[in-house]
Queue: 2 jobs
Job 1
Amino acid sequence: MSLLTRRRLLRRAALSATAAGAARSGLAGATAAGTAASTVALSGCDSPPERTTDPEDRGLRFPDGFAWGAATSAYQIEGAAKEDGRGESVWDTFSHTPGRIRNGDTGDVAADHYHRYAQDLDLMRDLGLRSYRFSISWPRIQADGSGRPNQRGLDFYRRLVDGLHERDIAPMATLFHWDLPQALQDAGGWENRDTAERFAEYADAVFRALGDRVPVWLTINEPKTVVQNGYIWGHHAPGIRDEDAAYLVAHHLQLAHGLAVQALRASGLSGRIGPALNLHPCYPADDSAESAAATRLHDGYENRLYLDSIFKGAYPQDVLDDLGPYSRMVSGVRDGDLKIISSPVDLLAVQYYTPIYVTGDGGTVRKWPTSEAEWQQIYPEGMYDILTRVTRDYGRVPITITENGLPCPDVPGPDGTVDDAGRVTFLRDHFAAAHRAVGDGVPLESYHVWSLLDNFEWAEGYEQRWGLVYVDYASQRRVLKRSAHWYRDVIRRNGL
Ligand code: FCB
């Protein structure tokens, strides 16, 4: 198959499948087109836990010290978009652009966590969380993306991490969860190599201010999503559709990751650091040789592009060949870059949501029930496969799961409770898969459910609810869903 053909096929695959895209943009038609009729029209939210879960999974215990947690990100929950010197991010611009976000929603207020963080900390304590993964908003720390850090922004995160320690919850801070300062976007954003240098400076300022209280740092959240959703499909900020630019962006995001790792080492702090990658196990849709070949390349773009560069110090050759020597990415890689990108990390954060099935012509099909997020097929076995594969191919680097979850159309019942039984089933099945991976030698140390709270789900606005905790946006009242009560028991038992 010629390179050109493979690229074309890959593009078609992405069009038909990539799911994150069309579903998140609300372009459901685009997602459905080209996918198999085998799609099962289930949301995963209706299945009662008792029926779908293997009874043998009950009684599973995780290793002592296993840290159960939950995850959020700054733009999705904080609100307070204009307070205490916060600058604008690409997501402010994007969400305020008519037609970009479902229902015209924005993150201006979100779950108002900036003002309600103390109450949210108490919720975390009540759940018994051992770890909380949150992100730091770059434009709160540097309104324009460079220069002297804004003390009021740093103070907010200082209060948050102090509050976590007071409640015996370990902070895990992500440095970048997509909210690039708009000023940097205006200067070229991630297409500009300089943004990686700016990121390292920002990271350094954060390390110096909070490094004594944050034991684990994650660099860039899901670089692949920025590449695909932000630069290929354009339904995430900055809303660009330029594949050639997209892979240059991938390189600069990887470079930024490596520079931040080096900045932490240079600071002399003892914290641990690693990347946060959304990994999709890719399977051939059938037994043909064509499907096997197409799956291999798909895996290159989905997984190895990010994993190989960090853990092996080289981009995968099949992806480089496919991009071609004249691509902006390939010509943008400078001597020494891969050495920076592969600076040794302390752990790998894995975010698992869905498998991908690839056909011989480079398209994709769905084989499992799809959630309310159309890009998500519900397949707990994929969690086992991706964890064991990473350990097999990249060595025994400690792993934390930093995201896994399910959106459900949660509505409080007449008694005020929220019965998200399907989410319980989903989590239980994924916990069981993770447990099997641990049994087979995967050094998994913690698991963070996405998400602690219902929040601003990017292009879907507030339509999709992913939280363990229901948020009534009108009153900002929080209600623990059934899954939250169930999760509290899991944490107490350290298992199912
Ligand atoms: C991940 C994102 C997270 C959230 C979940 C549903 O890709 O990192 O912010 O949107 O998906």
Note: The CA atoms of residues 211 and 242 lie 37 Å apart.
Job 2
Amino acid sequence: MQFDINKKWWKEKVVYQLYPRSFKDANGDGVGDLRGIIEKLDYIKSLGIDVVWLNPVYESPNDDMGYDISDYRSIMKEFGTMDDFDALLKGLHDRGIKLIMDLVVNHTSDEHLWFKESKKSKDNPYRNYYHWWDAEKGEPPYRWSIFDKESNAWKYDATTNSYYLHIFSEKQPDLNWENPKVRYEVYDMMKFWLDKGIDGFRLDVIACISKDISFPEMPKTMKAGDWFPYYAQGPHLHEYLQEMNREVFSKYDCMNVGEMSFVTTEDALLFVDEDRRELQTFYHFDHTGVGVSKENFMYADDSNWDLVAWKNIFWKWDQVFAKKGWGTIYLGNHDMSRMVSRFGNDSEKHRALSAKMLHTFILSMRATPYIYNGDELGMTNTNHTEIEKYQDVYTINYYNGLKQKGGDYEGFLKSHATISRDNARTPMQWNQELHAGFTEATPWLAVNKNYSFLNVAEQENNPSSVLHYFRRMIQLRKNHETLVYGAFELVDEKNDQIFAYKRVLDSEVLLVVLNFSDAPAVLTTSLAFSNSHILISNLEQPQIDHFFQPYAAVIYQIQQ
Ligand code: GLC
Ligand code: CA
């Protein structure tokens, strides 16, 4: 198939998301740090990835683990110094790896100088950096907050008899993007980092920066999942992104990816159509919601899992970017549970196999792949049901809120255990020594007990490990442009066990077959594939007779 390919370097990269707090502790205080990452640079290079996305490393009181920034231009003390940062950046660049940083600009920490000033008086020069509601007007129209103990996004502050808005925790006041001073402070800060040589940004909750600041009342009958138009995709969003592009992105050869909540396939291109000069890529959440309660998305229920629906989500999104724009693909990050526990099968029998199958998927789709650290090993959930085991503000505050209101806090914890963010934040499992070789001290979040057999050292020595397979799969993507740019087409779309698709570029036709189930499955297609050359598979004999084995993954090169 011939079609125009708009090639760009950032479409061809594989991104490794690195959570610094849990990667490697170099100074023995139980918290990962930049020197720790530097110690592991050769490991990072060995994976074959091209870009590192670093979760926030800026100064922060860590109410939300770095997503509450108190100084955008300095490094969090626990993580090290600016010299350490410069050394890390150089270490990555020396190895041909790019670095993108987290840009958290919907809100700051309440300990940021801007907010401390803003609070002081109504005529403070920083007053309009945030959203204030004068209590003389009465109570502000209700806004729900995901991280607030009382689920209330307005916090009363007696100093000026006003409420301030915080969609996230009360320690994360929302910046007022209507104020050009705020926007230009942000652009300057972005240039500060880009001038240092970083290669771009991942833009945290970027769809929230513009909201309807008349703060209309929300209809009382609405369910949680329908509230979002009141928080995101506000009237000036595109204007601000175009301005950011003009002031910052257009001046550098950098890459960017927006965290795009509440985006639909209909408005997707408004963000990433090259001609509109906004963003290059973003990631949506559509596939992460399958199996999660619609009424209350803090609850998960896997009985709702539906592979056909899931496949159609990817199919639909691929079509959006077939001619313009470009997509991303991921199955895990620091806000989700572990990829293999959520979308594969983390039982002893199927863990390694299903993790390899998921890597085959991520690395054979038409989109820039993102892999979250630890997933290259198939690290799993911890599924804790005791609140004491959690560190995440999200889990802790929601739990406490339910307890106060007399809600079903135990039921919440039971269900939430499978989707809690702390599942993915446990320390990286390096070896079978104390605390998995992550630290010599007590780690800030306990190591998953399975580190004794699930760790980097073991997998390095085991040629059939998930880690080795992951590296092979990355090399395969690099060697076959078809896996990056080739057209995508679902095969046997109604099959509720197998996810199969073709990737086609020029004369190359590849068929990817992935059994997402724990039972053998048959692929129904007119394509003659069974004698085709196999480029990669997670099983020596993935297919026996007509059956694909449980969690089989295989890529065929079809002879035309
Ligand atoms: C994003 C981050 C998440 C954080 C939230 C508030 O969703 O990924 O970790 O808690 O924004 O900044
Ligand atoms: Ca440390």
Note: The mean pLDDT is 95.
